[in-house]
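Below is one such protein, fold included:
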Amino acid sequence: MTDDNLIEFKEFFRKYWSLVNRPPIQSALHHFSSSYERRTLTDRLVELMIALEALFGDKENQRYKIPLRCSCILYPRGDARKEAFLTIRKFYDERSGIIHGSKLELAPSLASKVDLFEDYVRRSILKLLHLCSMRYSIKDGADLDEILFFSEIDPFDPKKKGGI
């Protein structure tokens, strides 16, 4: 690590340390970190999806809500958001097949995209930490929907409150 890395690291923890023990961020961070300990891409995918479920899931319509909320917090309207939505939904379906016993391993076509999926999870955690640091309470999916779809906050406009 360089001195610049250490300075960035220190600043990150100064800014967000008080927020990391809050649900759902605590659970997401735990599973995100656990994904590095897994030996197979299949196990890694399961841990990463659990992290996304902690951040974006609720009791119903998970297959739709998790990819929608995640893609909307990561990208403005357009092709990148649509691609992220479709990719996350494919990974959700893949994880469901693995967990519920219809598949043993991650499909080879998705294996090369696990790093991209990991990046979606990482960036989602950072964006939610930022919103929480701006004093927005995000305890569940309804709170997140309010910010993403119904409030004056524009997550992509740094000039507006909450821009990330």
